[in-house]
Each structure stands twice: as structure tokens, then as C-alpha cells.
């Protein structure tokens, strides 16, 4: 295929200089038909391959076909892209080009799928700090050795394309609140608008056009951060196409193949780090990187004055066993609230039980099922009346007490009235803490005599206030005239008859 420079030279030499076709062909080492063909041509030449050669993969073609055949039965989210397949072949020893792998994958998939219809869209333009797009995705990861499906919250600033990701066990409203807190802290500010689809955690009712009835609790968060929530038209994902595209890319970049982490905290730390790393990529529509555009957008975000307390509140009645139930798990409450109504505030990571405007119990939230989360101190008032429950009570069986206290407990419980004696020690420890009780138990173990009364004496001695070394009297009580020790005054009282 001739370049436009050669074609222009042929035309100039023949049409302007009058040089013959044979002379031009000889000097340029071309055939005369080729020269004659381009004499009247002004369009750029286009190379058209009559037949695309098959990719040359050699012995690795069988491995690639096996992978494709295996993964076609998996959910789309778990299938590897051509890039990931290429990286896998490199591990196996492949030293060929990525283009060969890409063309083979494309040809293989072309025979398995039907062509899709083309759609046209309008390009969207956003100003700095104008909008942020939000969406959920489900991914497959391994947490603490257990493969599971998790929910990932996606945020994307529409101007800079800076993204933020946070992973959760579920897609509930309290998770939405926590994700917004994390995202705004990561961005260092709040945009003017946040664009959503019509998820239940955000929208209660879809009205005519763009009118929506937003969830009351969600609007409390929006009013706190002073951003305008915008809900997309149903079945119009292109209105937040940036974050929709991000979902697919993140699945390929971060979750294929399956990622493994020890906990959700480790996973979220890793996601935040990867968001910063991916920001070094080129901006999809503008010159420079995403990080450079984000640096210009960040100062225009609205500053965060305080973090939103993102909880969902439920009124519950405490059971006779001093428990409230949340998500098929049970959490303890102080025994004096048994049978009474309390407010349970559920956040992404914590369970708070509130009564009379005060927090009466706090527990880390469990996402397993049928778990009993107890604070043994909540049942101490019950033990005072029923000391026998100390031996088999569920809150006390797994109580992680310091080793000296456990050793003293085992020995005291073998003694008569040992249950009540140890409960009395716990009652004192409730007021002063476990550390003095631990020291008292250590002293009792050292002397070799372990009885409830002895440990109690040591405990009270440890917690007794120190005696003052010098008594200081107020000025009003101080003597101005010191008394004198004069025994002759007594003789005067008795008279002279008794004087010896």
C-alpha cells in the first residue's frame, strides 16, 4: 500500500512535469499499472485484508480453549477478560503477543453469542463538584477462608472520574449511610448532587416524570450533607453511565480472579488504596490523569462539618432473657430493662440500644446467623438473686476473664456457698473494674489460701482510699492557747486534806 507522499509525487511528476509513466515506474521501483492506478486518485489508501489469519498460539491454544469452555458456564461477573486470560497464559510460559490472544477470544466468543443492537446516546458534560454517581454491584470474594457474595458501593465524581469503593455484607440502608460517610471522607468534601437509581433505600415512591418521594431517613442524610439527590428515569442507566461502566471495569480489574482477604476491614483498606492507584490512569475524555483533574475538583467540593450518624432505628421489647433480636442474632441488654420497650439503632458495624435518651448497651454487629452476643455485666443483677446461674449461664460460660480470676473462680466454686461468694466479688468488681480483682486473686494464689473472704479482704484493701499522713485542721478549729499539763490543779479541786 502506497503512502500519500508517493501518490502525490506520482501525480506531480506526471501531471505537472509531464514525465512518462514508464520513467516514474522505473525511478520509484513500481509497476506501470500501479502508477497508472494512482494518477487520478486523491483519496487516502485503505488497507483491506481479504482474510484475517488465525492467531498463532501454538501449544497454548488448547489451554486457552479449555479456560474459555470452563468459564462460559460461570456467571458473567466471574469470567476472565482477554487481558486476564493473556496474563494467565504468560504464567504458563506463553511469550506471544496480547493481540493474538485477544483475536482468538473474540473469534471464539463470536460463535457463542448473538449480535447486539446498536444504541445512540447523548454525551454528558459536568462541571467540577457538580455531581457524583452511585450504584451497587455484587462481587465474589473469599473472606476469612469462606467464599461469599458481597455488595460493593460505587461512587464516581462525574467531572474528574475519581472513584471510591466500599464493600459490605448486605445492601441495606445503614450500609448506604456508611458508604456515603466513607466516600465523602475519601473525596474530602461533598458534591452538589448525587445521582441514584430507584433503589428502595433511597426512593419510597416513583411519581410522574422526575418526581420522587425520597425515604425520610435518607433525606435526613441528604440534609445533613446539603446535597441534592437525583433519581434516574427507570430503565435509563445511561443517565449514570459513568458508574455503570465503572462496575464492569472494577469487576475485571479487582475481582477477577477471586480476591481473598482476612476481613472486611482489610478488603476496604485495599479498595481505598486501589482507588488511589487507578486514579493515575488517563482521564477518558480530557488531557491528563484522573488524579490531576481530581486535584482541581477537590477544592470546590463542599467541606464536611460533621459525619452523619447513619443508623436505622427500630423499637423492640426486651425479652425475659434480657435480649433483643436483630437479623436473626440476639444481643444482650442490662437486666433491669427486661420486658421493657427500647430503641435499637442499627448501623453498618454497631448495635446501640437506647432508652430514656441514653445508650444502655452497645455491641459490634454480627453478620452471621443465630449468634448470641452477650455482655456478662448485663446479667450481674440477676446473679445477685440467682447465684447458681453462674455455672451454666450462657453469658458466663464463654466469659473471657483474666487467668488469675478464672483460677480463683474454679477453686471457690468447689467450696460451700462458693457461687454466692464469687458473685459478691463480681459485684465489687463491677464498681471498681476487673484490674483490682485480678491483683487480689494473684495475691490469694501466692499465699496458697483461696477463699472468698480472703480475696474480698485483699480487694477491699486495694480499693480503700489511702489514709492521710498528716491531719490538717481548718483555721477555725485550731487552738489559740495550748493547754498545759499541770496536775496541781487536780489537788486544788480535792482540797488540802488530801495533799500528801
Give the topology:
Layout: H1 4-16, H2 21-28, H3 32-38, H4 60-71, H5 82-92, H6 98-110, E1 131-143, E2 146-157, E3 163-168, H7 173-187, E4 193-196, E5 203-206, E6 212-214, H8 216-225, E7 228-231, H9 241-254, E8 259-261, H10 264-278, H11 290-297, E9 312-317, E10 323-326, E11 329-332, E12 341-346, E13 350-355, E14 358-364, E15 372-373, H12 380-385, H13 389-392, H14 394-397, H15 403-412, H16 418-432, H17 434-447, H18 452-463, H19 488-494
Parallel strand pairs: 1-4, 1-8, 4-7, 11-15
Antiparallel strand pairs: 1-2, 2-3, 5-6, 9-12, 10-11, 12-13, 13-14
Helix pairs in contact: 2-3, 5-6, 15-17, 16-17, 16-18, 17-18
* Rg, Cα atoms, Å: 40 Å
* CA(first)-CA(last) distance: 151 Å
What is the number of helices?
19
Question: What proportion of the residues is helical, as a percent range?
Answer: 25-40%
Shape: elongated
- Sequence stretches where pLDDT stays below 50 over 5 or more residues: none
CATH superfamily of the largest domain: Ribonuclease H-like superfamily/Ribonuclease H
Write down the overall mean pLDDT: 87
CATH topology of the largest domain: Nucleotidyltransferase, domain 5
